[in-house]
Amino acid sequence: METNTGQVRRERGRKFIVKPKVCMFCVDKTPIDYKNITLVQRFVSDRGKIVPRRRTGVCAKHQRSLSQAIKRARYLAMLPASPNHVYNISGGERKA
Ligand SMILES: [Zn+2]
After folding, report:
1. Which one of 7, 30, 35, 72 is CB 3.0 to 4.6 Å from 2, fit for a cystine?
2. How close is the Cα of 45 to the center of ligand 1, in Å?
3. Tell me, what CATH number does 74's domain have?
């Protein structure tokens, strides 16, 4: 079975094409800044967790600096650190 990126992988008859992902920080040369919440927020799940590299396509070097930036932003309460911190925008009272 081929597992290289860009190859067609077959699992139990299903066809699954692996797309080669590129790191957006390497391409755009965007500096990772913990004060840039709109950027950092895209790498945090709706439950406040850091999205893994395999889903975002960020390279190892930038994932390290990204996780550091997310942790700094959490400390400054600019990002949620727990699902309890996620603000419910969609209306409806949340159970205490
Ligand atoms: Zn990178």
Report:
1. 7
2. 20
3. 4.10.640.10
| Structural domain includes residue 40 | yes
The maximal CA–CA distance of the chain, rounded, in angstroms, is 50
Which residues hold their Cβ within 5 A of ligand 1, which is an ion? 23, 25-26, 59, 62
Query: For 19-53, how does the pLDDT look when each residue is reduced to its tens digit (9 = 90+)?
Result: 778 999 999 999 999 999 999 999 999 888 999 99
Find the 74 Cα to ligand 1 centroid distance in Å. Answer: 22
Domains identified in the chain, total number: 1
Q: Ligand 1 centroid vs 23 CA: distance in angstroms?
A: 5
Q: How far apart are CA 90 and CA 17, in angstroms?
A: 35
> Quick check: is 95 in a domain?
no
3 state DSSP class of 16: strand
